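Bench notes, bay 3.
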Amino acid sequence: MIKKSLLTFVLLIAATLYCSAQGIGVVIVDKDGPFTNIRNAPNGKIVKKIATDKTVGLVVTSPKNGWWRIVGDSYEDYDIGDPSEEVKLTGSKSGYWIHYSCIGFFTRNYGGQRITLRSAPSSKAKAVYSFTTEETPLLMDKKGSWLKVKIGTHIGWMEDEWWCDNPLTNCC
C-alpha cells in the first residue's frame, strides 16, 4: 500500500507537469485585502472572489496588458481535500482573468543558487538584479522559456527553469 504522503507527492508532481504543458502554474499571492478578484475579462466584471488567506493554485496563459487568462474554469484549493480540491468557476461565458499583481510562483533556488534577472529575455541581456534566497516573484509576462517577473521593486526576465508552481513541494 502506498503511503498517503507519497501518493500526494506523486499526484502533485503529475499535476504540475500537466499544468506546465497547458500554461503556467501559479499561486495567488495577493495580500492587499481579504479577497482576490477573478474577472470575466481584463478589468471586467468580478465573477469570483477568492479569500487571500487561502492557498490557491491555478494555470494561466495569454497575458494581455497585465492580465492573465485562467486556463479552464477551475482552480485548486490546497487548504481543503488531500492533496487538493478543484473548485469550479462560474459566471462567465468568455473565460476568467486575473491581474499579474495577484499571482506568483516559487523559485527553485532552495540550494542557494544565484538567479539573475535580465533586462530582456536573453542570457546575453544586461543583468538588472540577482538573488540567492528563495523568492515569490509576481508573474508579468512570458516569452519562450523566459518569464518577466517583479520582485519587490525589481523587474526583469528570468529563465523558466527556476519556476515552481507548487506550494506544497520545492519542485525538486
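Next record in the batch:
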Amino acid sequence: MLTRALFLCMAIGLLSGCVYRIDIPQGNYLEQKDIDKLQIGMSKEQVKFVLGNPVLIDAFDENTWNYLYNFTSGKAQGGRIFVTEDSKKATISKKITLSFEQDKLIKAEGDFELKENFYVPIDG
C-alpha cells in the first residue's frame, strides 16, 4: 500500500512537468516581402491591401498606424526541466510604424528594412 502511494506521488510529480503549453502569436504577422511592397505615396487603402488592418491607430493622430507582432513560445514558458537554446528565445517582437499625410504614406520606421524603391513615389 505504501509503495503504491509512493509510486502514485512520483508519477504525479513527473507528469506535472509535462504540461503542454501553446505558442501565443499576437498582432499582425508581417514578412519582409510584405514590407518590400510599400512605397511613398501609397494611399491608406493600398497599405491596408498590402499589410492588412493595423493593430493600433493612434487615438490622437489618425495618420500614425502601428503594426505590432509578438510571439511567445509555449516551450519557453516556465516548468522546463531542460533548457535548450531554442527555449531561451521565448519571445519574438516586431514593429513597424507608418505615417501618413493627406491620406498618403510619407514615412515608415521600425524593425524591418526598407528597400530603396520605398523612397520612389508611387504614381496615382
